[in-house]
Structures are given as C-alpha cells and as structure tokens.
Design a protein that fits this description.
The structure is a homodimer.
Chain A (H helix, E strand, L loop, with lengths): L2 E8 L2 E8 L2 E5 L1 E3 L12 H6 L4 E4 L1 H6 L3 H6 L3 H5 L4 E4 L3 H6 L4 E3 L4 E4 L6 E4 L1 H11 L3 E3 L10 H21 L6 E6 L5 H13 L4 E4 L8 H14 L6 E3 L5 H9 L4 E3 L2 H7 L2 E2 L6 E2 L19 H5 L2 H9 L4 H26 L16
Helix pairs in contact in A: 6-7, 7-8, 8-9, 10-14, 11-14, 13-14
Chain lengths: 364, 364
C-alpha cells in the first residue's frame, strides 16, 4: 500500500517518492501547517498555486473544533477543507503538552483541559488513532510524549512511554489507506536517541519521524541528533523531522537525510509582517520600504513578488489590512516549498546546491 | 475622450458602455469598495475572478494613508494596488463628514481632524481634485457636501455649496484622462432635487452622480428621488448612485435608470459572517449550519459556493480563521456583481428579469 523509492542520493541527502493510495509524494518536501483545517489566510487554490503538495493539520485542534466525528460525517478532512493533495495529521501529543491548560500524564495516556473552553478530555494512543482515522489524512502519527530536551532523566521516562504508545498505536489502527508513522524521541542524549531509533525502526511503520527537536536545544545538538538517528534508520522508509523549518534547518536537514518537514514559521512570520528574502529576513512594516518599488525578493517567482511592491505591502500593514497577511504568507510558504523542491531537483540532477545557502541569511 | 452609449433599454432601465482611455465599462455595474487600495481580504486576482470590472477607492483614506503623493510616485493607484480594470475615487467629502473627528465647514472648504492620528487637514474642491489626480483613477468625483436628508433648511445650504464646489472642481481639473462626475444633492426635497439635477446636468460633466441617498431616509423616499432625478438627467451620460447596494436597491435602482453602484455592504456583511442567498440572508455562525453540506447558495457559481460547504465556513468562523472572511467576501461580491451583470444581459436580450426578485428576500 505504501512504498518509498529513493531516486537519487548526494551524500546522505536523498530525493524520493512516497506512494500512497491518494497520490504520490515527492520528497524532500516542506509541508505548510493548516492547524484548524486551513493554512491561515489562504484558499486551497492559493496553496496549490504556490506549489504545496502536503499539508499538516493538527489533531488536537480539530478534535476540539469542529470535532473529528463531524469531519468524518462531512466526508473526511480532504473533502471538508477541499485540499486535493496529500494531508498529514500529528498525534495531538505535542499540543496537549504545549497548549492544553492543565494535564496529567500516566502510562495509559494524558488527561487535559481544553485551551478553548476549559473542558476536560483524555487522549490515549487508541484515542489519538481513532481521531486521526476519523479525520482521514494520508499520513498519521503514533501518539508520543515530547520531553524537555534538557531534562535527561525525564527524557528516558518519556521515551519509554513513547515506545509503549507506539506499539499500542500500531495495534489500534484499523484503516489500511493511512500510513502510520512512528516517532523517535530521546531528547539530546545520544544513548537514548540511539535506543529510540533502534526500537521504533524495528516496528512495522511505513515511515519514521524524529520528534522532540527544535524545542529548546542548540542547532548543534539538533544536527548531531539528526546525524545519529539517520545513521540508524533504514534507507527504505521516509524520515520526517517534525516542526522544524527555518531555511537553514531545511538545508541542514536534507543534507542529513531528512525527507519531510513541516513548520508554522512561514505563516507565523507573515502575521508579524516578516518575510524571507535573499537580503535576509525583512520586516515590511519598516518605514524604509514606504517608497520601495522592488518586490519582497527580486529572485522570487511567487504571486506576491510577481505582482506587488514592498511599498504596497507596507501600506497594507500600516493600514491594518488583512491582505498583507495573505500576501506575506504566499511569499513565505512559496519560499520554503520551492527551496526544498529546488534542492530535490539538484539532488536528482546531481548538481551542487550550496547556492541555496543564501537562505542562511534568514537564520534566527 | 469619454462616451456613453446606450445599447438597449427596458422602461427606464438601460444597458450601456462607458468608454474611457483605460478601457470600456459595461453598465449597469456594481463596484466593490477597496477603501484603502484593497478590497478587504481579497487579492486582485480573486477580485478579477469573481467578475469585478470597477473598484471604488476612498480619497479620504488614501490621502491620510499612504498619502496621494506617495501613490503618485509609485505610478498611481492602478499600479500601486495592481488592479488591471477600472477605478473610481470618491471626493473625500462623505468621509470627512462621517468619519473625521471634528470638522468646520465654510464656503471655501472643510477643515477636519484625521480619525487616524488627530492631525488637522483641509479639503477644498481644488484639493480634492488634486488628490484624485495624484491617485489617478479613471472616474473621479466633484467635491460635495452631503446633508442630513431630514433637515430641509440645511439641505438647501449644502446643495448650493455643492453647486459652487462642482463648478470649482471642474475648473481645478488638469488631467484629461479622468472622467470627472458631478454630484446631485438636495436631500429628500423634490424641489431641491429638481434644482440640483437641473443645475449639475447643465455643467460639462461626462457623468452624473446622485449623492446623499441611503443615509437615513426611507426606501420610498430614495426611490421617489431617483425617479425624479433620472427624469431630468440626460440619457447620454452615465448615472451613478453613490453608496447604495442591497440586492433590492440594485434592482430598484436599475429599474429607475441607474448605471453604476458601489457599496461596502458585501464585504461588511462578510466580516459579520453574513451571506446573501436565495433563502434570504444567512448568518453562517448559526449552529444550524454545523453539519450542513450545502454551499451557501445552491444557485451560485462563485469559487466559495463551487468549493466549500456551509459546515466548513461555519467551522472557520467559530475557529476565528480569517479565511472565513475571504470566502464570504468572494461570495457576497460575486452575488451583487453578477446580479447586475445578469440584469444587464436581460435588458440587452429584452428578457424579463423579475426572476432576480428572489434577492429581495435579502432586504434589510
């Protein structure tokens, strides 16, 4: 049902195709985040036009609003949000640990209060899979616990729980048209990461995800963990680095063998008037752009850069017009989606892609 | 430079073409309002796709932000906002009287404080024309004073001032590629409206506008004034009914010989989660739509209705997602733009268009 074919490699970097019943996914790929069944401010038509092929939606948010059973009644998430390409849902675990108001973790699951209305809910691996089966994305995730990377003792407890939950997630699954990915945890401890990579890759998951990175550790630690984990994971399965997505992270991630990325950064930056460019990250509210007739980025072919000046976008920001967020989201998402697409093409043609390094100027 | 040709009539209703250097305008036409050089939440591409051919922008707002001189430096409003079809700017008068914080009117002009930062400014007919020449729309308006329709004594003063300002607006004009329209005032007093229609249509304006209606009077008074004024205005010039635009108003306006309409209603309703439909006006936040798989309006061919269910739009509203406003704006604008287009086609084909009456269910 699910196959991953490596078409070309360059060092550890790989270009491949992940086959699913709903369609093929070319990797490496950057997935925009559509938290509440919408990539903020964009229509699916705009998302398609900017080249997105995979969108991530959040299980925690959709479970609370509008409810996974309602989405199932409406024909599933593809039909509900009218996104004709591939969808991925996370397990809800990360949001329960980061957003929910109070939570109580035990070996069976997590009890938490909704950040929307304070009501009490409980997620277990079985519940997370049931919700994700109702939502009906093409790629779904095992329920996991993400620990603080700087608390090694707790990292081990969280990792071991994640392993038990991975087995229970596999058992709970009833649909055969969804690829369930296992998640590797272990914080920044090399021994724990090694153990987690070995254990999770021993289970019959069609894809593997690396969780718990970019949550407070240094870039060096992130990259070291990536190198370690990817040296253990099988070449025959796609690797998804969860929630990571500065331009630098994408480049360094692909270089270390990552195939799938997602991140809220492009749309969050857009809401703060910021944009990626070959001159570095720009804040378009800056008065310096009031009469600037250039596009955000001269080298960019997105709708925003093909059409509008920095002066116009600054005017929209100052006048508090929502179109500013839309135009900046289009540009930022296009930049990351196409950065990864261009790297993929370079890997296939065995070209050097260090040129993409300009995006390092956009580092945090 | 400007010509208005009547292609067909049905009673007082007419279908025509207004020729301008920038392009032809098919009338009757409904113009979406792009107050601050953007029709709220929509890209120009979305606006074009829904069939808009004329957009109104507000002189008062653009003078304050980003400034008409900046817009001129950026190549004018067409280029600044990247709207490839026709543009109309109002004179700024209505906003000065309705939005500005304090104002002092004399025979020469109006001194007012900005609603943005409280700074003091002065508009005169000459200043309004200079600003509109900087903005560079295809149709511009004479500076006028809109009075309260229920204060007859003041209506006369405002009307007489509007007439002097109409003459001064004509004299102030230096560009030949913009059609300057004169504005008829006179409140709801038949004698004043008659005098104003006769006076303003005696001046060499290529088009005439009816101002000061839909500002507090009854529908019956509006329609009576329209019938009176249009019986006086020459057949050879386009007639623009300013700021009026419920579906009922459009139908009754065309029937009484109006060619051009604009109104913020479709986008304002969108921001309040409301939509036109053949079942009447709907509020999509209503829980009744939570599982409703129908489009907003079954008979509508807009992107929103072709693509999304009421259930999805309600979810976006409840989840406070901006896409809700975009999708509702597309639908509401499409509805009015195409209502008027369909009436135009019916006039040309000499078909009955009472069928469009369904939209009366959306009356205020």
């Amino acid at each position: 049902m699910f196959e991953y074919e490596v078409l070309a490699t360059q060092g550890r970097a790989r270009a491949g195709i992940f086959t699913t019943p709903y369609g093929d996914l070319e990797t490496p790929v950057f997935a925009p985040v559509g938290t509440q069944a919408t990539v903020k401010t964009l229509t699916p038509a705009q998302l398609d036009e900017l080249g997105a092929t995979l969108v991530l939606a959040n299980t925690y948010h959709l479970y609370l609003r509008p409810g996974d059973e309602l989405v199932a009644e409406m024909g599933g998430l593809h039909r509900f949000m009218q996104w004709p390409r591939l969808l991925l849902t996370d397990s809800g675990g990360f949001q329960v640990f980061s957003l929910a108001q109070t939570r109580k973790i035990d070996d069976d699951g997590v009890t938490f209060k909704s950040h929307v209305d304070g009501s009490t809910h409980r997620f277990t691996p079985e519940k997370s899979i049931a919700i994700q089966e109702n939502l009906g994305a093409d790629i779904i995730m095992a329920f996991d616990e993400c620990s603080d990377p700087n608390e090694a003792a707790y990292s081990q407890i969280a990792m071991e729980r994640t392993h038990r939950w991975a087995e229970r997630s596999l058992k709970a699954k009833t649909r055969h048209d969804q690829a369930l990915f296992g998640i590797i945890q272990g914080g920044v401890d090399p021994d724990l990461r090694t153990a987690s990579a070995e254990f999770v890759s021993s289970l019959p998951f069609p894809g593997l995800a690396i969780g718990g990175l970019s949550v407070g550790e240094t870039k060096e630690e992130t990259y070291a963990m990536l190198e370690l984990v990817n040296s253990i994971l099988p070449e025959s399965k796609p690797r998804y680095l969860m929630g990571v997505g500065t331009p630098e992270d994408l480049i360094e991630g692909v270089r270390r063998g990552v195939d799938i990325f997602d991140c809220v950064l492009p749309t969050r930056l857009a809401r703060h008037n910021a944009a990626f460019s070959s001159e570095g990250r720009l804040n378009l509210m800056n008065a310096a752009y009031a009469r600037d007739e250039k596009p955000i980025n001269q080298d960019c072919d997105c709708y925003t850069c093909r059409t509008f000046t920095r002066a116009y976008i600054r005017h929209l920001i100052v006048a508090k017009e929502m179109l500013a967020g839309t135009l900046l989201s289009i540009h930022n998402l296009y930049t990351l989606v196409n950065l990864v697409k261009n790297i993929r093409q370079a890997i296939i043609e065995n070209r050097d892609w260090q040129a993409e390094k300009w995006l390092l100027d956009n580092r945090e």
